[in-house]
Specification:
This protein is of the alpha/beta class. Helix 1 (about 10-20) crosses helix 6 (about 190-205). The chain is built from six helices and seven strands, in the order βαβαβααββββαα.
Amino acid sequence: MVLYVATTNKGKLGDFSAAAATLHGEPITLEPLPGLKDIPAPAEDELTFAGNARIKALFYSQLAPEAIVVADDSGLEVDALDGAPGVRSARYADDMHFDAPTLSVDERNNGCLLKALTDIAQPLRNGRYRCALAAAQNGSLIAEGDGSVEGEILFVPRGTNGFGYDPLFYLPALDRTMAEIDAATKLSVSHRGRAFRSLIENMQNIGLKRS
């Protein structure tokens, strides 16, 4: 089965590919959706991760006839910030007008998050990574999946193996941030890995086994 993933993010594609490699049964090949960089993206204006994943999967599947297109929406929810950054995780620094033009997008978002949590003590810095996935074909929704992982937000970043908020996302059970664990360990706890396995299980439950 070949699935075309609507993302240009190599980190996300790597997480999904790693999850696919652990599944039993018919092999699953993941490919980036061809020409994605040249396609104007649809507006992600839903209030939930699942809603935005559906928007993207339905939109891009209409541009790739017969292909099964998978799209995700994922991000970080922090309890002390009433669930922010949430669906705006990738654009958090821009939304909050956090001015640090010399930093990368990830560094700006992390800096903005730390600023928002300045007065929040460690016991109250709980949060979770969440991922929602949707698969569509010819503009029709096929299946969905979701996954999450609980953690805490640190005061300073640690680790270089991840992306996004990984250096700040601490996993108490492992005493490591998401950016400090190896690929195999990350696969076992990753919200994206869990969401992908959930999606494939749901696709199998409806008898969809081939692209």
